[in-house]
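ARCHIVE CARD
Drawer: 12
Card no.: 0347
Subject: one protein chain, sequence and derived structure
Cross-reference: see card 0346
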Amino acid sequence: MKVLLVDDEEHIRKIGRLSLEAVGKFETVVAANAEQALALARTEQPDLILMDMMMPIMDGMAALAALQNAPALRGIPVVFMTAKVQPSEVELYMRMGALGVIEKPFDPMTLPDVIRQLMGTRAS
């Protein structure tokens, strides 16, 4: 599985990539912002986008909307990573089309399993 990890914080990108590749054995592509993510999504065609919610210029919700408006990208599932996980916030993310939400800080040892569970729910 190929995962596009999008986060404006370098240490999150490093820890996330290490977790996804070493623990999860996922092919991983990283982006530092939503604009890079949209470009990489077009060229890399990831199986999943793991996206930070709070980023400068374009936040996760705006990036999700841009993905959904691009015919070639709208089928790529998006999982948000965020500290904003109040029930009303999570409900909004899901209503907007997110596959799931992973709370930050995340556990690097279990991140791949959480992703597999979310992808499994999508398949059923």
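Annotation on reverse: The chain has a mean pLDDT of 95. Residues 100 and 118 are 7 Å apart (CA to CA).
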